[in-house]
Amino acid sequence: MTLSERISVLTKLGEELSRPDEDRTALIKASYRYNLWFTEDNYNAAIQAIASRMLKQSLLEEWVKPYNISDDITPEIVGMVLAGNIPLVGFHDVLSTFISGHISQIKLSDKDKLVLPYLIGRMATYDERVRPYFNMVDRLANFDRVIATGSNNTARYFELYFGKYPNIIRKNRNAVAVIRGNETKEALNDLGKDIFTYFGLGCRNVSKLFVPQDYEFSPLLEELHEYREIIELNKYKNNFDYNFTLLILNSIKYFSNGCILIYENEAIQSRIASLHFEYYSDENDLENKLAKHKDEIQCVVSDQPLKNWKHIPLGGAQTPTLNDYADGVDTLAFLTEARTPTA
Question: Are 256 and 224 spatial neighbours (Cβ–Cβ below 8 Å)?
């Protein structure tokens, strides 16, 4: 298939994802039975973000312009270990591999194994030549490149097993938010999307706030209370209750509105239903604190531009564009560069 033909197929998929589909809905409901974090609303949010931000012809054509994607490419096999923390989290990797003309060898997460194969099957109904580009496997073998996503612990094993191949190996990361203290109610409410979408399980979810000295938390807590329905999910509530108990037992000062626990902690990653915060005294102090955790931060959201960081408005963390590469590593550049022979 030519690049233009692959873009055409992806565009048709985007159009289909924008419409209701009974079979897709049934698979989403089945995914929830496998993984109680994958609610129908969250799955549909992921699908609509993909359809609107990634699978439009103009966006795809603009995305690929800077890269050397030849119609005469000799396809390589790209082994992928997909994460399962939020719905369709590995879709961008699969999309990047397909649009670059390579073949995906995909090890699905047990937590999210139904919908992606269905979407690939739908693409094959538009053009049967799509099928050879995708292979679902239980174990990667005979591949040329690797993209593997996991925790900090699994990343060590990935580096051991895949180190001799061209690779992208991803570890734990989270988003952070920079608060200035003069945000509008609407902006603080938008921040709730960055915190609560997917129950905070994604690498782009805000897990920590950087706030000015003497910041008044009441307006933030009031706006985040608009997301209080999240506490109705038993798994989330169990985590909230457990973490609340830990804070009480350890005499840790906290702020809460009944659906989130906010407390001071230097760590970037926070527990489910919890949000860390850290004070900064001025812009230099803020810049130093962010730089200290550069390898742990996926993205920074803020109501204002930031020095040395790409600016993502509050509320925009969970709707990444095609150019918002995980860990700041350009996936499409990795897939289109000449392969270095291994020993």
Answer: no
- The partner residues of 174 in beta bridges, in order of sequence, read 297
HSE-CB for 314 with a 13 A CA cutoff: 20
CA 19 distance to own-chain centroid: 23
Residue 225: half-sphere exposure toward Cβ, Cα within 13 Å:
11
Distances 200 to 14, 57, 196, 278 between C-alpha atoms, Å: 26, 31, 5, 19
The separation between the first and the last C-alpha atoms of the chain, rounded to the nearest angstrom, is: 32
> Which residues fall within 8 angstroms of residue 34, CB to CB, at 6 or more apart?
110, 111, 112, 113, 114
Q: What is the pLDDT of residues 107-125, one digit of tens each?
A: 999 999 999 999 999 999 9
Half-sphere exposure of residue 105: CA atoms within 13 angstroms, side-chain side: 15
Q: Is the pTM of this model over 0.70?
A: yes
Rounded-to-integer distance, Cα 91 and Cα 158, Å? 20
**Three-state helix/strand/coil letters over 50-96:** HHHHCCCHHHHHHHHCCCCCCCCCCCCEEEEECCCCCCCCCHHHHHH
CA angle 313, 316, 320 (to 5 degrees): 125
pLDDT digits 0-9 by tens, 297-325: 999 999 999 988 988 999 999 999 999 99
CA-to-CA distance for 294 and 310, rounded, in angstroms?
A: 13
**How many Å apart are CA 131 and CA 159, to the nearest integer?**
30
Give the distance from CA 298 to its chain's centroid.
9
Q: Is 142 left (phi over 0), alpha (psi -120 to 50) or beta?
A: left
Q: Which domains does the chain have, with CATH numbers?
A: 3-171 (3.40.605.10), 174-302 (3.40.309.10)
